[in-house]
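hey can u check if this looks right to u? its 259 residues, i copy pasted from the old doc so theres a chance i mangled smth
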Amino acid sequence: ASAPGPGEPWGAVVAELVGIPAVGVADVRQAGTQSVGDLASVTAGFRQHFYGLVPGTTERAVGPAGGRPLVTTGLVDPLRCRWSERPARFAGRRWEAPVVDEAAVAAADPSVGAWLADRHRPKLLVATQTRVVEVVVDETGEMVPVTPLVVVEPEPDDLWLLAAALSAPPVTALAARLTIGTARSADRIKLTAGQVADLRLPADEEAWCEGAGRARDLFEAGGGATAGAWMAFGSVMCVAYGVPEEPLLAWWWARHPAH
């Protein structure tokens, strides 16, 4: 195997040994002239923010009116948030539908309160420890992200374009290669905020726009999204990034939670 390129961890050299398609790494890095960080602020919370949310978190059934949904990485599926559909683990306990009272958080720690207020905007939440890159769209800005979610905050007009780019099969292949050996298991992806910001955006704007529309359709379909709809999305995003569909598309779909 050849040595890794600049900025690539040595783990990327052995990626093909665990079946990660070679297509995507160089192509995605050179796909477009812009990266995610050119269109959005990309951040992740710290331990202070995690623990700072605890005083303001309650179950929706007993919390104050207007509480914002608390979203953990376990509640993020590809283009779908499972808040209130799936139990969450936070602060050492199980929650059914956790909400956050901003005022209570700010009273306990003003700096965390200010951070929480800044997150009250349209955004994308990128999960960690996943088999494909999993992104949920928060159009209203209500969701409260819990560390270690990566938070991507673009202008509202770019929300679905970035959701499509981050959800694209070539980006999952690149992310799997870049982060191999850093997650809890060899087949999981663990991107940092800096790595998300550095991901290149597609060069084919027409295909990218079509992919953004398909991403919105998948989001609106929720659990009713069909395999055909997912494959059509994956196919057009391969076109957007200028990479061949096979073997990438089949590999991506085999790892996908909706499969």
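Residues 139 and 152 are 12 Å apart (CA to CA).
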